[in-house]
Structure formats: structure tokens, C-alpha cells
Amino acid sequence: MWLGDLGADVVKIESPQGDPGRSAGPPFYKGESAFFLSANRNKRSVVLDLKKNSGPALLRRLAANTDVLIENFRPHVMERLGLGYDRLRSRNPRLVYCSITGYGRHGPLSERPGLDQIVQGVAGLMSVTGFEDGEPIRAGVPIADLLAGLFGACGILSALHAREKTGRGQRVDTSLLQSMLAMLTFQGVRYLNGAEVAPPAGNHHPIIAPYGVFRARDGLITIGAVDQKTWIQLCKVIAAPKLVADPRFEDNKSRFENRLQLAEKISERLQARTVKEWDRLLNDAGIPAGPIQDIGEALESEQVKALGMIVEKEHPSAGTVRLLDFPVQLGLTPGRIDQAPPLLGEHTEEVLRETGLTAGEISRLRRTGVIGGKSG
């Protein structure tokens, strides 16, 4: 989807049953899954049954004239279908072939199916998400799926850039597990260099204090005083000068060791005003802070509107749908959403005609069940 936002002509190959995401829900918007709508804009849908004898041959024909192929089967499935990298590149040496698996193409777990939440747990991410006296918590969005796609897109763009110099495509591999391991960042590096296994830190930062969630008069607010200067300024704004002189809070090390006591002290002072009032006062003083909004509040905020992060597109069956826009602005070649997520097989014949198939060939493929979707 992100490559499509950047101008790629993306063809989504689906089985006759369709991407399982099409039926994922609720909620459904006029019969269309919100889950599917969220990740399939700027794609054309082709229904192709790879289990039929001529299905893989047709995909090989498509791949011979394409820049990039992305697949997310388990390792070796594409080889068994006759669609492995070596075979496809023999016909199209400029092909960039990206595989996104659950656990990587090698190793004892490589043949396992990979699902987002399962990999969040296996990778250790859930162990540092949640509260110290509670159960591990999954991220509220499918972060392993999303980041594996983002890392895959990054690898593809790098391979396409290299192709401009070498004239050759290459294989690109990533996995849900690798994407989550990369996201461990300092929590992973601290363990690798002799520190203890990090416990969950709840709503407070695992190494900096005060940096977390605090309670104001009417709700919760996040505040981050990440250096000594900001800490002193925070104490001034909340009218708590005694905290600066308290030896328990004299530097970040001390504040972190006593972070829960410190959070109580700060929350006591915050009872004097509302979240909205503190949000303004703290930010005016140069102290990073913000309310904890629900998704509706966030998406309807003036800041999100100013960024233009919500766009409307016409869907062939659902009418006008609202989508989240591409999150990067490019001055000369801006990303854009040209079309809403497609119906199943909406573009099958269109794509096949562009590939050079005749009307008779397309008709025979449809009769034998190799292709599906809208006809005509």
C-alpha cells in the first residue's frame, strides 16, 4: 500500500476466496471490512487460482514484466509452486523479489505460520508492555505486521535504487520476528551488553523520570521532563519547588529509582487544574505534554486536520470512504491516494489485457476457473 501511495502500480493477486482480510470484522462499512479498507488502497485486484495447473504459469507471465514481486507465504511454498526467486529471475533478471515471512526463511521456527500477536510475544515485545504486576500486553495495533511491511518496502526501495546502478534485481527478505527484534532497540541492547532483562514499565518510561502518565483534576495527561533543565522548569510550573531540593529526585538516576513516589507527588500538584489547562501551561513553558486522547478525539483534532491526514475516496460499492493518508510529504513527488481499496477481482481482465493476453485466452482462463472476478 505504501509503495502504491508513492506511485507504484500495485497488482494484488488474490485467490478465488479472496484475501481473508475482506471478511475480517466487525466493523463493516456498507458491507466492506474496515480492516481490509485500512491496508488496500492504491491496489488493483486480480483473482488467480495458483492451485490450478495453469495458474502459476500465468503468474510467471505477469512477473516477467514487473519490477517487484512481494509474497508472504511460508518458506518454500513459492518454490513448490514453481514461483521461486531463481526461476523468476531467470526470465526477468531485473526483478526485485521480496519475501515477508513470520520467522525468517532459515532456522528452527522458519516453517511456522506467523501471526502478529504471536510474534509480538515470541520476540519479547509483550514482556516490556504492560504493568510490572500484571500480564504482558499486546500493542493495540498489529505492529509486527505493519512494521514488517514497512521494512519490506524500505528494502524494496533500496533494491530498486541499486538496480539503477547494477541493472540487476535482487532478493529481499524480512519477517515479522525481525521487525519486532529491531523494535526492541535499547531494551534489547541493554540486555545484550550485560544488563538485566527489562521488566515492563507500565505508563512510565523505563529509564527516564519523570516521563509518563499523571493524573490531573479531570483525567490523565502525559508529561516528559527528559533532562535536568526541563525537570526544574516542571517543578516551577506546578508550583512544587521543594521537589527540586528533595534528594530522592536530585538527578535522573534518583528520580527513576523513586519514579512511583515522584509520580504521586506530581499528580498531587496536578489536581489544581484540568488536563486542558495543564496541557497549555506546560507546553507554553517548553515542557512536552499532551492529553491521552481516544482515536476519535485524535482523528477529529485540529492538528490532524491541519496535516491533511484524512482523505475521502469513492469506493465502487461502499460509496465515500474516509482513509488515513500517506504520512510523509515529498516536495516534488508527493504520495497520493488515487483509488479506494478494490473489489475482489475488480481488475483481473484489465491487468491481463495489459500483459498481452487476448480476449480468447482470458475467456478460456475464466472457463477453467484459473481466473475470477469481474468480467467484461
What is the CA-CA span between the terminal residues?
26 Å
Walk across the major sheet and give the strand order.
1-4-13
Say what oligomer this is: single chain
Helix percent band: 25-40%
Number of strands: 13
Q: Residue ranges: pLDDT <50 for 5 or more in a row?
A: none
Largest sheet: 3 strands, mixed
Shape: elongated
Strand content: 15-25%
Name the structural class.
Answer: alpha/beta
Q: Count of DSSP helices?
A: 18
Mean pLDDT across every amino acid position: 96
Please give the radius of gyration in angstroms: 26 Å
Q: Could you please describe the fold and organization of this structure?
A:
There is one protein chain. The chain has 376 residues and is an alpha/beta fold. It has 18 helices and 13 strands. The strands form five sheets. It has a three-stranded mixed β-sheet. Strands 5-6-7 form a three-stranded parallel β-sheet. It has a three-stranded antiparallel β-sheet with strand order 8-9-10, with helices on one face. The protein is elongated. The mean pLDDT is 96.
